[in-house]
Amino acid sequence: MKKSKIIRSTLILMAGGLITKILGMFIRIVMTRLIGLEGMGIYMMIYPTFSLFMTLSQLSFPISISKLVSEERHNNLRLVTTTVPFSLIINLFLMLIIFITARPIACILLNDERCVLPILAIALVLPFDSLSNLLRGYFFGKEKMFPHIISHIFEQIVRLSLIILCIPTLLKINLIYAVSFLVLVNLVSEALSIFVLFLFLPKTVTIKKEDLKPNKKNLKEVLDISLPTTASRLIGNIGMFLEPVLLTTSLLATGHTKAFIQAEYASITGYVFPILLLPGFFTGAISSAILPELSKSYANHDKENFKKKFRLGCLLSLSIGIPITILYLVSPEILLKTFYHTKEGASYLKILAPFFLLYYLEGPFSTALQAMNKSKNIMIDNLLGMIIKSLAIFIFPFFQLGIYGFIIGEILSLIIIISRHFYGIKKAL
Fold it and tell me: Which residue has the higher pLDDT, 427 or 25?
């Protein structure tokens, strides 16, 4: 019964994820063709900064809320109403930081003044992104997948429509305005997502004055889960943030031009990684589906059931990952030509594809560790992976490896993280 429930939840999330991922890929194709390689280069340069601040703004509250709601030990309304005000305060603080540091980040760290306006645009998106994901965490904990899917579909449709309607006009004015608008599109789409999610809340939900008072016990439980998880994600985002900085510094020092660096970096991060990560919605769906069951099993000391659900999650992930990896190895040029009307990055895709098979296990592995309250393990593993990757990105270009230092760093990081995750799970069980 529980096994069929996990599979049903997974299939629902996969179906919805497939629709939103196709829309997302179509959005990426439209973006790439509209703003060109130069525009994508600027967008991908600021994207790690965007990811870093989104991680800080969410503070992993969605995962905390999902886990605590699934355990059925709390007043779910109080959990959410306690977390939302705290989340908004954090977001206001982050917005202030962005307004102060936008120019130094663009001019000193990214070496490109054109990035200032797109970075400033990030600040306006943060509170909307944070609140929509927090609400999704609630619905995941209740094992209600449809609100998440419907909100995501509406979100992607709005994003696509705005890009098609507005980007051509903005490009006639200024390329930077167009890139900044690509960031601000998220504000409108996340606001719509929040509205849709509110429509799915139970009609019986009424918020009283006392519900708005922070519950210290609830907040502590939320933070006990979210802080180590956020630290783990933050490590990854700091690594992403440092990627273009370290890569630009080392490649410039070894005689490569800024135009070459931006073009190759945009090729890998704008073309290759989106294709490699495209099936990520499958592992994301599987991870979201097994988290409530794993959390319940571990809380009830039912290790046998925990192992069954964990193995099921890994098996489902690999059953998707293996055929897709074969496809990437056999037809990299065809895929890039189909999606992006280019063959740029085909050699990178062929090298990375077999190692990215490990990526399909990362979701179930990290979900299992979270369910066992081992978020600190994830944080330490990601820290080691980030350090190795950053060192590789910076050092290998000095050995005449050029941009392949970035590729090697990505592979080493993935191997280290997955190996340590597996060791942590095996030791705990």
Answer: 427
Could you give the C-alpha distances from 376 to 77, 226, 235, 238, 283, in angstroms and in order?
28, 10, 12, 17, 21
Q: Which of 10-14, 70-74, 141-145, 377-381 has the highest mean pLDDT?
A: 377-381
* pTM score of the predicted model: 0.66
Closest CA to 219 of 65, 71, 91: 65
Residue 270 DSSP label: I
Burial (0-12, 13-18, 19+ Cβ within 10 Å), 264 = buried
What pLDDT sits at residue 222?
78
Please, which pLDDT band fits residue 206 given cuts at 50, 70 and 90? low
DSSP 341: S
Neighbour tally for 423: CB within 10 Å: 12
Question: Given CA atoms 236, 238, 243, 246 in this order, what sign does their dihedral have?
Answer: negative
Give dist(CA 295, CA 404) in Å, integer: 40
The vertex-141 CA angle with 136 and 143, nearest 5°, equals 95
Asked if 186 and 159 touch (Cβ cutoff 8 Å), the reply is: yes
What H or E segment, with its residue span, contains residue 424? helix 404-428
Those residues whose C-beta lies under 8 Å from the C-beta of residue 66, and which sit 6 or more positions away, are: 137, 138, 140, 141, 288, 291, 292
| pLDDT tens figures, 328-340 | 898 888 888 887 7
What is the model's pLDDT at position 205?
Answer: 61
pLDDT-wise least confident of 77-81, 93-97, 207-211: 207-211
Distance from C-alpha of 23 to C-alpha of 162, rounded to nearest angstrom? 13
Amino acid making up residue 29: I
- CA dist 70 and 299 (Å) reads 11
| Phi, psi dihedral angles at 210 (to 5 degrees) | -70, -25
Q: Identify the residue whose tokens are 């069980």.
A: 429
* CB-based contact 281:294 (threshold 8 Å): no
Q: What is the DSSP string of 217-247?
A: HHHHHHHHHHHHHHHHHHHHHHHHHHHHHHH
Joined together, the tokens standing for residue 195 give 């509205």
d(CA 183, CA 118): 7
* Residue 372 DSSP SS3: coil
